[in-house]
């Protein structure tokens, strides 16, 4: 369900980003997103595996939890400096402030129309089917949580530590 996060938001061990004094509550990513609405704007530590770092700026990375179904974007704060490509595949504990971006029902509708228009282009069937499945999951989340928006969670990263 949360796999669409990185689709819509289409980024090592250096001492600048790694400190050992983590004081925030620590969560595995899969567990954090179960209580994310209660942790908004709080400083938390999340543990996950780096799937991607932005090659151009290094100012973003994406992590997944153990299930590999949930993705979270982490923005590098000034204390981190950036995420290097050699972090990909690493398990990190990242401390930062949990934030929420809200995707309105109207935006979901607009995205669905865009995907449906692309669906008939050669080679796009499989990609579009995956996006349409994610859109259906977003709609289900909106209903299940009684919201008029889909929550996309991300983190303003303050520091990280490589765990493996």
Can you describe what's shown?
The chain is built from five helices and six strands, in the order αβααββββααβ. The chain is α/β, with parallel strands linked by helices. It has two domains: 4-103 and 149-162, OB fold (Dihydrolipoamide Acetyltransferase, E2P), CATH 2.40.50; 104-144. Helix 4 (105-118) runs antiparallel to helix 5. The two termini are 27 Å apart. Mean pLDDT is 84; it is low at 1-21.
Shape: globular
In percent, how much strand structure appears in the residues? 25-35%
CATH homologous superfamily title of the largest domain? Nucleic acid-binding proteins
- Count of helices? 5
Question: What's the order of the H and E elements?
Answer: HEHHEEEEHHE
Main β-sheet, spatial strand arrangement:
2-3-4-6-5
Average pLDDT over all residues? 84
Structural class: alpha/beta
Could you name the CATH topology of the largest domain?
A: OB fold (Dihydrolipoamide Acetyltransferase, E2P)
Low-pLDDT runs: 1-21
Give the CATH level 1 class of the largest domain: Mainly Beta
Largest sheet: 5 strands, mixed, barrel
What is the share of helical residues? Answer: 25-40%
Give the domain tally.
Answer: 2
Write the layout of secondary structure elements.
Layout lengths: L3 H5 L16 E4 H4 L3 H4 L3 E11 L6 E5 L6 E6 L14 E14 H14 L6 H20 L4 E14 L2
Parallel strand pairs: 1-2, 4-6
Antiparallel strand pairs: 2-3, 2-5, 3-4, 5-6
Helix pairs in contact: 4-5
